[in-house]
Specification:
With 380 residues, the chain is of the alpha/beta class. The protein has 14 helices and 11 strands.
Length: 380
């Protein structure tokens, strides 16, 4: 276990690291927000305040960043995909390459691939999307409806990423646009992370507009390979002064690669199982995300599919449309703050009855048809 970290009685498992709030990094580029602002159909997604959750969690205020409709798609991923593709095409133009259509290749559990395919279609490019076993046919059909070529892989996410990378290397005029990084493939995933910074900037503005200028005290972010969490850490750890919020990552128990890596102090891969949180079902942290997660996350927790489903139901009853990945943030905060050992963790994270908590709900139900169907079946 890493220095200054402790685990406490908790089911599902979690880890708290009290020293992370003092770490600092460079900020994301300011021009990302300006780029998104001029995209057709762009507008900030809602930040909903939910007083009943604040009462349940015994904090001052709870807000949910609702990413169920971002630029016409049911998840936040298009923020990263659009900025990365913009940078790819701008770089090719600046180098004097012929302005022929390129093939944007990626692997996906659903949302990222559809975002890449949508961006390619809007910009007159081609897309080839690889999907792992278990992605719902309607999610695959939604990617194909963006005029993308879809290859279904009889394997898990990590294997699908490998095959997509091999295909991109073998195709002429192809570019891999992947939202995870590894040694030798880091620049484009870095652009994707930069794209996600718009989401965090919106939260700041919306909190200020609601009369809370000091910013959040805790931000909970669902984690797959860790790219969104990297963007969140970058945003909140790049401020030279002022209060730094506690940052919590939330993963499925079936794919808790970040939690496992933080506990060991080194990035590791884990074998993934089945999970309704399909977009988080990833076994290896992104190589560029890992240093940010290692140094900037205050806490990590793994949650069950059932906890995520209950959280999604509760959010729906409060008017927030959330899929299982998005609802994971609420499930994780519930475990950390109200489960066994919650008082100890609450103190370590610097939270009290006046604290402001922000939950990132990264997708709506339409992003994950399989989980929606399973939930309906369970309810009959």
């Amino acid at each position: 276990m890493t220095e200054n970290a402790f685990s406490s009685p908790c089911t599902p498992p979690c880890l708290v690291r009290p020293g992370a709030r003092t770490w600092r990094c460079a900020p994301p580029p300011a021009e990302v927000r300006d780029f998104h602002a001029v995209l057709p159909g762009h507008s900030p997604t809602p930040l909903a305040e939910l007083p009943s959750l604040a009462a349940e969690l015994r904090v001052g205020r709870v807000f949910v960043k609702d990413e169920s409709s971002r630029l016409g798609l049911p998840a936040f991923k298009v923020l990263g995909a659009s900025w990365a593709v913009h940078r790819v095409l701008a770089e090719r133009a600046a180098s004097g390459e012929e302005p022929v259509p390129v093939t944007l290749v990626t692997a996906t559990d659903g949302n990222h691939g559809r975002a890449v395919a949508r961006t390619a279609r809007l910009l007159g490019q081609r897309a080839h999307v690889f999907v792992p076993q278990g992605v719902h046919p309607r999610a695959v059909a939604a990617i194909a409806a963006e005029r993308a070529t879809v290859t279904e892989v009889a394997g898990a996410y990590d294997e699908t990423v490998r095959l997509a990378a091999e295909a991109a290397a073998a195709l002429p005029d192809a570019v891999l646009v992947q939202d995870t990084a590894w040694a030798g493939y880091e620049r484009i995933p870095g652009w994707i992370v930069e794209g996600y910074s718009t989401l965090c900037a919106e939260i700041d503005e919306q909190l200020t507009g609601g009369g809370h200028v000091a910013g959040p005290d805790l931000v909970a972010v669902p984690v797959g390979v860790g790219s969104l969490a990297q963007a969140v850490v970058t945003h909140y750890r790049s401020r030279p002064s002022g209060r730094a919020p506690a940052l919590l990552s939330v993963e499925p128990e079936a794919a808790a690669c970040v939690l496992e890596s933080l506990g060991l102090g080194v990035p590791v891969s884990v074998s993934t199982g089945e999970s309704t949180m399909a977009g988080l079902n990833c076994g290896t942290p992104s190589s560029i995300a890992w240093p940010f997660l290692r140094d900037g996350l205050d806490a990590a927790v793994a949650v069950t599919d059932l906890d995520s489903a209950v959280a999604a139901d509760d959010l729906a009853a409060l008017g927030v449309s959330s899929g299982p990945c998005g609802a994971a943030s609420l499930a994780g905060v519930r475990v950390v703050l109200t489960g066994a050992g919650g008082e100890e963790r609450r103190t370590a994270l610097g939270l009290d009855a006046s604290s402001v908590v922000v939950l990132l709900s990264t997708e709506g139900p339409a992003a994950n048809p399989q989980a929606t169907e399973q939930h309906r079946t369970r309810g009959k």
